[in-house]
Amino acid sequence: MIAFDKSAIYGVPGEPDIIAVHLERDNVTGTIRAAMETEALVPLAERWLIARGADPEQLASSAATPIRPADPLTRRIEESLRSSGDRFTVRDSYTDEGEPYDIWVIAQDTAPAATDPVRVFHYQRQVDDGTYTVREGGFPDLDAAYAWTRDTSVPLPPVTSPSARATAARQTTIPTSDTPPLTPASARPPSTGRPRSR
């Protein structure tokens, strides 16, 4: 179950207000075990529940709210977060309870091939339209991510894939003029010199 914590409005400024509640019934003992996690974004709360055995399809069907994703990119980023398992470790977040209801989450990417090891997920609400957007940015370290949060009107830097980085490196690498081009061994003319004596 996912719920909105209204009391967060009166708590510490910036604290997350989404609560994921996991209930596990033990029919043998007739008891219920409850666990709870507070998150800044609904997909992160859903991720926590999925890790505890919740059905992703049931979560999706019960997540209908009056506020809807504004575009396909928002849906893709949310689905990526929802299904990310333990890939992202949340380091910090801030929830603005007043308009425009901005939320940012700083997370460490634990994937071995991560090119941008720190990610920022930025939620913005469009109050007049009843929609919201989520965007993702990539940063080299936590300091750079925190620097961006000081002005969230600045566009997030795009996340660079390993293949895109390799392509960019190849395109920007220019051999110096004093370095002769390498000739493959198969294309070299046969040697006319005498073999070395042993």
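the 2nd protein, sequnce then structure:
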Amino acid sequence: MTVEWKDMMLDKVAIGPVSARIYQGADYGKGPPIVLYLHGGAFLDSDTHVDRPVAMSLAKAGAIVVAADYSSLSGNLFPKALEVSFSVFTYLANKRAGLGDRKSLLFVAGEEAGGNVAAGVALKARDQMPDALDGQVLISPLLDPFMGTSSIRKAEAIGMRQRWTEGWSHYLSGGGCHPYAAPCLCSRISGVAPALIFTAEDDPLHDETIGYGTRLKQAGVGVRQHVLPAGTGWPSIYGGKSDGAPDWQENVSHHFGSFLRDVSVHPQLH
């Protein structure tokens, strides 16, 4: 499916106007799902509306993807980054911003730092807007501020260890480590929206991603988890060095499409 995009300003968001790039397939169907997409960048990069291959992969599955610039208003600091993102989510849940219709399913998605914020949005949605979120898509989410897993040792080889260290320091510089800021430390994760989770065998974020998915399952949350083989260029999704050419887009699009169908048929996916 060919994906088209346009830039727009979400000027009625409660926290203030938020710019966004909207991705959608040229032939998406009636009542398409809406995805709030949150970009990566190690809590250091702003969204300058560069091409977002993850967002395009989700749009190829038939969704309208709202790639919101949560960084400009928040400075990539917690809790502001979560507040901006949740404000956009609330706006989409209530108004849909003229996208889709009232029957459109609503998802939140993000990779790396954006995956962290997406997981935080899912937790906050459970607490403040039950049943408003239909699913979360976590793509190598950056969840562990202590960077204490075994797989994170690979971060140095792909040029990300120092960057993630600096990113965590920046993101949490506004205060303590709230569970919304580090979802892997959250003690109460039951009742959140069903999750589609991606990582890869050569991903330094593999262990914290798998660990969070396992905890979600143990809490009774519906989880679809996919581990791509090494050599697909997976670390490139968050700027890591990779020898292999990126070969993951169709995989993400395919599994997201299956997740959409599952959630549509079984809203309380288990």
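Helices lie at 53-59, 71-74, 80-95, 113-128, 161-171, 206-218, 249-265. The beta strands are 3-10, 18-25, 34-38, 64-68, 106-111, 135-139, 195-200, 223-228.
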